[in-house]
Design brief:
The protein is of the alpha+beta class and 494 residues long. It has four domains: 226 residues, Glutamine Phosphoribosylpyrophosphate, subunit 1, domain 1, CATH 3.60.20.10; 85 residues, OB fold (Dihydrolipoamide Acetyltransferase, E2P); 86 residues, OB fold (Dihydrolipoamide Acetyltransferase, E2P); 52 residues, no CATH class. The strands form seven sheets. Strands 3-2-4-1-12-11-13 form a seven-stranded antiparallel sheet, with helices on one face. A six-stranded antiparallel sheet has the order 5-6-9-10-14-15.
């Protein structure tokens, strides 16, 4: 249940749009906390987007969010997304917006049969949708989708904002009174509340019709284009007299069973030889995605292949018949695409390896996200992210002093770079005894509200007086470090 919010701005002040984006990221967290992000297109068609595998209430506090919103002077289009994780794990790559070529997209739902979209079996489904929209005519791409979806995307080739959905995911449109501006959201009540909070008067709120594609041009004089597309609902397949439908509600997952289309390639784990009483022998496989039995390959087609195979090895298979539900999860026919053992590709990060950005022994600034204390020896562990543009994960274990706090800024030495339990990705491991400075966050609303408007660090009286900035939160001033960045970023001083 991801949450979508968007806008088409024809004259609203940039401050109103900035507040709308930040409030949407926080409010929309009710629909998902596994990731969040936003995209803003300026009237000069400059597009900026930012995302992280964090809840929306954390994303709005990060420096890049403030920087982007402050740099946009005449926002034209906007996409805001809060993710409830389904497949692909919680990481930057699966957070939204997703970007492929000229398409920047947000998606609520899950789709299957990615091979029909021109994507491989291990592609994130939302990315596969963006790929199809970039490489195929839009109507054709939409009619290939199988599963649940509400979509919003920006097309940088024709500079349009696009909206489409099927009946399994909601989307509402709010028309602003005496304006050509529009607001979008997954919930009508949330849309109405966000509009009212920002003094936006809506003429009406209507539900986006399933099977409808709305295309909105950058030019307000061009009429919004509405077209219809056919929603792809595969015909049922009959097994043992019972009709089995693919699960359209959750996309490619049917309970604990993965939907596999006919002729779709997938990865199977070898599980030995299956022998029938009539002397037929088959190679038996589990689907890697759900580890359930159900796929067999005729051993006669691959004589003596079993002699070279080890239980647990991975092979690329192709389904001869589809698996569309739990009742057809056993003994479905497949063929070996290759007799070579499949090597799982190593997932690469969207950023450079940590060793190229940091060195062991150097100090790093970071903010804690979670802190855990062991009752046995009173030691503490934490994970967080660096206070820089790399947003690298930081972890520490067996910390006895100082007493760490959640959502607080620290400085420590880098011990090494590690991978979590052998999985893809890296994190910075700090020296447990090297935390030499604690920068306590300021608490807005407390006895002392002298907080930096960007990083929330406590301000000195000199910084409050000398670094006053219009339209920033908390005290209305920045600390020296943020003030320097602000001056550099926007080439002006106050």
């Amino acid at each position: 249940m991801c949450g979508l919010v968007g806008f088409v701005n024809r004259g609203m002040p940039s401050k109103t749009i900035s507040d709308f984006i930040k409030q949407s990221l926080i409010t929309n967290s009710l629909r998902g906390t596994d990731g969040s992000g936003f995209c803003v297109v300026d009237e000069d068609l400059t597009m900026q987007y930012y995302k992280r595998p964090l809840p929306g209430w954390d994303l709005v506090q990060l420096l890049p969010t403030a920087s982007i919103l402050a740099s946009v002077k005449s926002p034209l289009f906007g996409l805001i997304h809060n993710r409830a994780g389904t497949n692909g794990g919680n990481k930057i790559e699966t957070s939204h917006p997703v970007n492929y070529k000229h398409i920047t997209l947000i998606h609520n739902g899950v789709v299957s049969q990615l091979h029909s979209l021109g994507a491989s079996w291990d592609t994130h489904d939302s990315t596969a949708i963006a790929m199809a929209l970039a490489d195929k005519p839009e109507k054709e791409a939409l009619e290939l989708l199988v599963g649940a979806y509400a979509l919003m995307w920006y097309n940088a080739n024709d500079n349009t904002l696009n909206v489409a959905r099927n009946e399994q995911r909601p989307l509402y449109i709010g028309a602003i009174k005496k304006s050509k501006s529009l607001l979008f959201a997954s919930e009508d009540g949330m849309l109405a509340w966000l509009a009212e909070r920002n003094n936006i008067v809506l003429r009406d709120i209507t539900e986006m019709l399933p099977g409808t594609h709305l295309k909105i041009s950058k030019d307000p004089n061009i009429k919004n284009h509405v077209s219809k597309f056919k929603i792809n609902i595969p015909a049922p397949h009959t097994y043992g007299g019972a009709a089995i439908w693919p699960n359209q509600g959750s996309g490619n997952v049917y309970g604990h069973y993965t939907v596999v289309a006919k002729d779709e390639e997938f990865i199977g784990k070898y599980d030995g030889v299956l022998k029938y009483s009539d002397s037929r022998n088959f190679l038996k496989f589990k689907h890697v995605g759900d580890h359930m039995y159900g796929w067999i390959v005729n051993l006669n087609d691959h004589p003596n292949q079993d002699k070279t195979m080890k239980v647990g090895d991975l092979y690329k298979l192709k389904a001869i018949e589809p698996r569309l539900g739990a009742s057809v999860c056993t003994n479905l026919d497949a063929v070996l695409v290759s007799t070579e053992v499949f090597k799982v590709p190593v997932l690469t990060s969207v950023v450079s390896p940590l060793e190229s950005m940091y060195k062991a022994g150097d100090e790093v600034f970071f903010e804690t996200c979670t802190v855990t204390q062991r009752t046995k020896n009173s030691s503490m562990s934490f994970f967080g992210y660096t206070d820089d543009e790399n947003f690298a994960e930081v972890r520490g274990f067996n910390i006895l002093n100082p007493q760490l706090e959640k959502d607080t800024h620290y400085r420590a030495k880098i011990r090494m770079f590690a991978k979590p339990n052998g999985k893809a990705g890296e994190y910075i491991l700090i020296e447990a005894n090297s935390i030499v400075e604690i920068v306590k966050s300021c608490v807005p609303g407390g006895a002392d509200e002298q907080c930096c408007g960007w990083c929330s660090a406590a301000l000195t009286s000199r910084e409050v007086v000398n670094n006053t900035i219009p339209d920033v939160s908390n005290s209305g001033s920045l600390c020296d470090a943020c003030h320097k960045d602000y001056t550099k970023l926007f080439n002006r001083t106050y």
